[in-house]
Amino acid sequence: MTNSDTQYSAQNIRILEGLEAVRARPGMYIGSVSTRGLNHLIYEIVDNAVDEHLAGYCTEIRVTLETDGSCTVTDNGRGIPVDMHEKGVSAERVVFTTLHAGGKFDNEAYKTSGGLHGVGSSVVNALSERMTVRICSGGNIYEDRYERGEPVMDLVNGLLPVVGRAKGTGTTINFLPDPEIFEKTRFKEDDIKSRLHETAYLNPELTIYYKDLRIEPAQEETFSEPDGIAGFIRALNKTKEAVTDVITFHGNADGIEVDVALQYVNEFHENVLGFCNNIYNAEGGTHLTGFKSVFTQVINNYARSLGTLKEKDANFNGADIRNGMTAVISIKHPDPRFEGQTKTKLDNQDAAKAVSQVTGEEIVRYFDRNLETLKAVIDCAEKAAKIRKKEEQIKTNLIKPQKFSFDSNGKLANCTSRDASKCEIFIVEGDSAGGSAKMARDRMYQAILPIRGKILNVEKASIDKILANAEIKTMINAFGCGFSEGYGNDFDISKLRYDKIIIMADADVDGAHISTLLLTLFYRFMPDLIYEGHVYVAMPPLYKVLPKKGEEEYLYDDYALARYRKNHKGDFTLQRYKGLGEMDAEQLWETTLDPARRKMKQVQIEDAINASSITELLMGSEVPPRRNFIHDHAADAQLDI
């Protein structure tokens, strides 16, 4: 290409005015345009109401999913300011049309806030087909309306029109997500209820009313948790055998409030959750680092003073000490810094210092007064350390280093490139499908790993059986980044050999089961593969239609087939693929392997707390809870008709 082939000038530089940038790149502000991002719109508005509660002015929040697909959030706080802003219009109009505008930047209005960036309300407005804002303040009801972020109501001398009289104060926001932005516009009620319930635990003096009018009869729930995070811990452990009572403590250091609740149960994994200003930090952050480091130090000191650890013994590591621990660490920070608008990781170093100080003082005070509880915690650590050492021996014996290109059975057909950022590995069930995939693939960048049948259900199995499973061993060695079993951590995501790990199973019940077993393995023992976006599920077609006139077409589900039957005129032949092995190499390439044409689903964790409990419920050994869950969610299933 020569310089004359393309022009690059000032005309190529585009300035996105107002909220246009949000609509152009919504993922930058809400994470994605999937259901996860859709629900995030509600969380942004609710978080603003919670900030009013934290400021001492709001006691009730009402969230209603309306019949028309919109959502209404009402609070009884002070109401968004409606007086004249220095920009010459009502302050409400500034809040909803300007990024980084809001009371969160004024430390006098909000001492702590979850809405750090001041973009929540304006982003929701930008991504909504329509929005109506009603504010009760000073005895009046004020109203403003928007369409796709643009105001559609005329102001009166720059101020909002009064549409009625009000007895109290507060804000009501109704918004309808824009179908031009989102893949789906139906809110996912289970995730929303989980988030609202979580918020109630973190705010024991707040009551949240939830109503779903989309179903008959309407569903209503009230979330009020006066026991706070202690009740949260009890709820998380309700099906588990407790080893200790719930331990709680509170403190303040350098203007940062710290609340901690923890309990030990008779299970061999940890569940430590971090929150900052009511926002769940899925990837943790400095507050969790501060808690974990000082708690480890305190327990090791006690273990030595009590004689559990002798002079020659090595200290327990952090994973040993936290084995069996369920904990919630919630802080209120006046100036939090998060990684990204979705606030998945806290980055303030002073948070680590504050949590360390409060934990160091309060947990020592507690254990000095509760010696039996302390001994129970040390017993858990000692037991975990013994198991860890035993399993390190098992791991050494069972997982041998293998060649990069092929495993000992010659199963892995690796790709030629060693650039992990460009490589991908397909996990395929069966020799037939594996053979077709090996012939169809791009050998430079695509590796094929056939597995035989259904792998072990890791939710029910012991670690020695997991590591002895041939298929699991092969995957661990192929990925190259190790394995984390909860007692130590040998997993290193930087050593991952493939940017994409793609589960390619048949589009039937057995294929779905194989996919579920693989996802359970990844979630429990290699969770960073999912959290960092490396796991995908291939979407092979179910049908191929061959019309007498017109082009052949692949259909990926029964809904697509129904649409085809409805819209296509004339006769056609229908070919159904019962398995990937029925496709020849050319068909497999053009439908499932070709990056330019294939369809894939990226696996994401929308709610880590829910994900863990549902995985335990569905893949564990208890049958009645699993049966009840399937019965309750049967209407959500897409049946193969």
Would you summarize the structure shown here?
By secondary structure, the protein is of the alpha+beta class.
Spell out the blueprint of helices and strands.
Layout: H1 20-24, H2 27-30, H3 35-54, E1 60-65, E2 71-75, H4 91-97, H5 120-126, E3 128-137, E4 140-147, E5 150-151, E6 162-165, E7 170-177, H6 189-202, E8 207-212, E9 219-224, H7 229-236, E10 247-253, E11 256-264, E12 271-276, E13 279-280, H8 286-305, H9 318-322, E14 325-332, H10 349-369, H11 371-398, E15 424-429, H12 431-440, E16 446-451, H13 463-468, H14 470-479, E17 500-504, H15 509-525, H16 527-531, E18 535-538, E19 543-547, E20 553-555, H17 558-567, E21 572-576, H18 585-593, E22 600-602, H19 608-619, H20 623-632
Parallel strand pairs: 1-8, 12-14, 15-16, 15-17, 17-18
Antiparallel strand pairs: 1-2, 2-7, 3-4, 3-7, 4-5, 4-6, 8-9, 10-11, 11-14, 12-13, 18-22, 19-20, 19-21
Helix pairs in contact: 3-5, 3-6, 8-10, 12-18
Average pLDDT confidence is 84
Query: How much of the sequence is in beta strands?
Result: 15-25%
Reported for the largest beta sheet, the result is: 9 strands, mixed
Q: Output the CATH homologous superfamily of the domain at 20-224.
A: Histidine kinase-like ATPase, C-terminal domain
Report the structural category. alpha+beta
Amino- and carboxy-terminal Cα gap: 52 Å
CATH topology of the domain at 20-224: Heat Shock Protein 90
Low-pLDDT residue intervals, each spanning 5 or more residues: 1-16, 103-109, 402-409, 633-641
Contiguous helical run count: 20
CATH level 1 class label of the domain at 20-224:
Alpha Beta
Tell how many strands the DSSP assignment holds.
Answer: 22
